[in-house]
């Protein structure tokens, strides 16, 4: 799976979970840039992403994610293992 | 040493002057000695507690960094146990024993556990949390372990934020102790101005409002429900000015030497919801709990989705209440705030739909009113000494509609036993309105950063006005800052 595909998936997951159609994420996107992405919806997003890719983030990773780019990089790394 | 004392004025002048006179390589030592003097002005022997936690956390940081990935945890646990252990012993031991003795009493036991007759070390909850922030960040790999023992000790002990925060993060401040700060006129002026504003908030506003609130909270049975509610209303502004005033003085004192501490308050009473209030009030503590408690708990339970967030919030707010004080009142205060936040979370979609057709500014205004109203109700737990006292307040609040009805019917106010309306209540309201206006326009025109560009006549008029306020309207009776007790 390439990076572009991961971003396409993330756009769909974010749009579905946050109920905001048409969300377009970039590597630099943070919670401040996406309406509805709060600390409260963050865990639901993480759980949905894990279920979608059948992967599991470590606690250390979840607390360290600073933007979508770091999240996407972690997904890519897990998928290529 | 109180920030609102002559002793501190002398201390600050000497420390700041020496800081710029000494060569850079001696400054960490000078600041560390100054911080020790500042701390030891309260109970000197308690510096040994600080020394103990500093030694443990300094070595824990290095051991965590040097250990293999799967062997780091025991060193983190060592640091957390040392800090929480000290906090538990000094702050919560007696509370725990009191409750055990209460149970023994109910069970008709004649044996009771002994309580300790010790004073709470000043600022213990603040510097232990700051120390834990360091070892956790080293453990997460966000911060390199500090090898210079003196600089690490200074990170924990830096006098402006040692006893009442802001609770700093190592990434924000630790590096700054290594850097050389040349004298900067702009920093000096910004810092002094912030200190002046903080002092005005403390001695002119908070300590004046205290003249209204203290007599009422000390003898609530003598007052009507309306008066008790008024006292709670004034109290939320009193505590805001008291604590944010302290934070401003801390930020200003650090700024004069070129250190940027994190902003601790952002006009909390303009919040449209409790969750917004949580992001604007005591930011260094709420982000601490968010980063180091809420996120790990909610992330660990994320399979429960919304349930994980609910459990995370409940635990975070219960412990946040307990952080403020070892009493059931503070636990209930935290629980009530947490319950409010969970309610907001669970009803968000419903509220968004229900209010969709109402103009946003009306919804926002209603949100602000509801938030302040809820905070006034919660102030009862925060300020009362016992749960029974709090319940008395709530019982009296229930009688407010009847009291208002009686005023309308009889046109008489005497039975409300209000504090002196002309000398206390009206000035109190005026001061609060003035404060909100100043903060509103200060934010709108970014005065913190642009003030220096204003015409000299405007700037100096503001400085003189500030000095007049401090000299003629300040209360100088050595009232401690409220958050010192935590």
Taken as a percent bin, the fraction of beta residues of chain A is under 5%
CATH architecture of chain A: Orthogonal Bundle
What overall geometry of chain A do the principal axes of the alpha carbons give? Answer: globular
N-to-C SSE string of chain B, H for helix and E for strand: HHHHHHHHHHHHHHHHHHHH
Instruction: Give the C-alpha Rg of chain B.
Output: 24 Å
What distance lies between the first and last C-alpha atoms of chain B, to the nearest angstrom?
16 Å
Oligomer classification: heterodimer
By DSSP (H or I, 4+ residues per run), the number of helices of chain A equals 4
The number of domains of chain A: 1
Strand content of chain B: under 5%
Largest sheet of chain A: none
Total DSSP helices of chain B: 20
**Total number of strands of chain B:** 0
Determine the mean pLDDT of chain B.
89
- Overall shape of chain B: it is globular
Strand tally of chain A is 0
- Mean pLDDT of chain A equals 88
CATH superfamily of chain A: ACP-like
The tally of domains of chain B stands at: 2
